[in-house]
């Protein structure tokens, strides 16, 4: 078995894979270079919705899927902000992956930001099936990252414990702002009110 704790990315995808059933629906809320979309396809997701605001990210994700022979008509690459995911997906989603921050090897100016990320996480929770998982990898070392993390954790802490379980993983002895993982699962169905 791989030493999962050494890699936040592997650890996050390990959790996600436990919640995905073959043939299920998954969302990559920040597809970037496509690594997470590829991992979701490999983990057995049939329908995948992958979002990014940057055209470059959508192109890189498509190229990554094609390279791995995983690209299909069931994979929807959508250039739009993740808070709009509800306009594209009906529901019954088993896993939603957020990998926050900026696109590696591109402008650091274009990064996820707290306000829209919180809206997007709320949108993801609305689409989640019972026993589904939202997995958020957070980076606090770049401008705006700490504030974004604070807002997302505040949202998670405020979730009704009768409906959700939220868990938070941080690499306690690592220096220089290591990535952190937030996991939220839906225990039972809920009727949402408008914001
Ligand atoms: N998951 C990616 C991978 O496997 O390569 C890495 C994602 S990268 C750390 C963060 C991505 O979030 C960037 O590509 C950025 O363009 C995207 N992003 C920033 N704001 C966004 C938004 N509002 N909606 C969707 N994506 C956004």
From TrEMBL:
Signal peptide: none annotated. Keywords: Methyltransferase, Transferase. GO terms for biological process: methylation. One of its GO terms (molecular function) is methyltransferase activity. It comes from the Bacteria. It holds the Pfam family rRNA_methylase. This is Methyltransferase domain-containing protein. It comes from Anaerovorax odorimutans.
